[in-house]
Amino acid sequence: MSETSLAAQLAVAKARRGLSVSVCLPARNEEATVGHTVATVRRTLMERVPLVDEVLVIDDGSTDATAEVARWEGAQVFAVDEILPELSRGSGKGNALWKSLYVSNGDLVCWLDADIWNFGSHFVTRLLDPLLHEPATGFVKGYYRRPLFGEPLGGGRVTELMARPALSALFPHLTGFVQPLAGEYAGRRELLEEVPFVEGWGVEVGLLIDLAEQFGIDALAQADLGSRQNRHQSLRELSAMAYAVLVAASRRMLGPEATESLAPGPLVLASVPAPDVRQVPVEERPPAACLHTPAAATSRAVFRADPR
């Protein structure tokens, strides 16, 4: 089936079930790629086929033209600091994802990374397919091949060196997930709002573990997205991501009390003449359902009435 035919079929299924779909992108300094992603979703899945109802970009402190490019291509753009300003600011990718639940409207929420070079509409349609055809499915994780430096495989180094070993040792029932740290996934709002969000790079592994624990592994599915290409960081730069994954998985192995008792210090990387000390976001936001109060509802209505 072609991607266009799949999108049309999914739009019919969405309408039949009376559902709505939000596509959300957390972004920081992604002016080179965010516009193509937003434009592709808008043109192929909103204008050509009524599958997606809104596309949002949560700008996490960009110093480039990320917000302007995304807005020009048709996204609703929110600065992370203007969402829930009465709460602590928070930091990191997971914080932006958590805040996107607060300003989006969809019954189904599809999250995409904003740094994909080869983005196509199939990233969205293949994630939504199980959710629109299988009522028992509540969360869909994308997987793909990860080219690295011209080679067909080799990307996803934190996955190979940290996430897979951690899941094998601590959560072996989740080892079947091909890309546990993939940034492309979709879920039903009623599930997503019932679990905490790690603020930083530990958010993906935290969501995977928590959703499986709370709703059962049979509520989780995977979707083949083909190949994903994005910019790559040095191994040293990836140390912070690996650290965040380690902390998130360790807290979940030790139990809920560990969120308070396990307070890791900064990441220390040996260097000459002095160590490289980095503060890595590992704090956690509570389930978004906790914010369903009259004050939160009033503030949320303001955002929805004036999406900017």
What does this 3D model show about the protein?
It is a single chain. The protein is of the alpha/beta class and about 300 residues long. The protein has a single domain, classed as Spore Coat Polysaccharide Biosynthesis Protein SpsA, Chain A, CATH 3.90.550. The chain is built from 11 helices and 13 strands. Strands 3-2-1-4-8-5-10 form a 7-stranded mixed beta sheet, with helices on both faces. Helix 2 links the parallel strand 1 and strand 2. Helix 1 crosses helix 5, helix 2 packs parallel to helix 3 and helix 6 packs parallel to helix 9. The chain is globular and about 55 Å long.
The name of the CATH topology is: Spore Coat Polysaccharide Biosynthesis Protein SpsA, Chain A
Name of the level-1 CATH class? Alpha Beta
Question: Average pLDDT across residues?
Answer: 88
* CATH architecture annotation: Alpha-Beta Complex
Question: Which strands sit side by side, in order, in the main sheet?
Answer: 3-2-1-4-8-5-10
Number of individual domains = 1
Sheet with most strands:
7 strands, mixed
Helix percent band: 40-55%
| Gyration radius over CA | 19 Å
Overall spatial form: globular
Give the percentage of residues in beta strands.
15-25%
Tally the helices. Answer: 11
The assigned structural class equals alpha/beta
Total beta strand runs: 13
Low-confidence stretches: 151-155, 293-308
Order of helices and strands: HEHEHEHEHEEEHEHEHEHHEEEH
Q: Separation of termini?
A: 37 Å
The CATH superfamily title: Spore Coat Polysaccharide Biosynthesis Protein SpsA, Chain A
